[in-house]
Amino acid sequence: MDGSLTYRYDTTGRPVALLPARCKLGRHFLGHLQLRAVVHDGEAHISCLACSNDGVDDTWRLTATAPAPERAELSDELYHQLALRRAQAASSWDKTS
Ligand SMILES: [Zn+2]
């Protein structure tokens, strides 16, 4: 798993899921039309359609602690650290291969 799905609450107290605004490899920004989000069995899977078209497995796997809210927003900051850490891990892996 890459982390936990995060929520915020709007002014009426309803939960809004916050989705990564960037795909896991950091190659694309994810607009609402560029991602596919599925919540299933306590896991949220968010995949980038552009990467899927390239045949790359680029799915965020996030633990969902609550049922999927009706609404979702994209957050660039929230998952930035996770993406960064992954990019660093990938580059150090490249050096040893
Ligand atoms: Zn992508």
Task: Write out key terms for the chains shown.
three-stranded mixed sheet; binds zinc ion; 97 residues; alpha/beta; single chain; 23% helix; 35% strand; four-stranded mixed sheet
How many helices? The count is 2
Mean pLDDT: 84
Q: State Rg.
A: 14 Å
Structural class: alpha/beta
Helix content: 10-25%
Which regions are unreliable across 5 or more consecutive residues at pLDDT < 50?
none
Tell me about this structure:
This protein has 97 residues and is an alpha/beta fold. The protein has one domain (3-86). The protein has two helices and seven strands. The strands form two sheets. It has a four-stranded mixed beta sheet with strand order 1-6-5-4. A hairpin with a 5-residue loop joins strand 2 (6-9) and strand 3 (15-20).
List the helices and strands and how they pair.
Elements: E1 3-4, E2 6-9, E3 15-20, E4 35-40, E5 43-48, H1 49-53, E6 59-63, E7 71-75, H2 80-96
Parallel strand pairs: 1-6, 3-7
Antiparallel strand pairs: 2-3, 4-5, 5-6
Bound molecules: zinc ion.
In short:
With 97 residues, the chain is of the alpha/beta class. The chain has helices spanning 49-53, 80-96, and strands spanning 3-4, 6-9, 15-20, 35-40, 43-48, 59-63, 71-75.
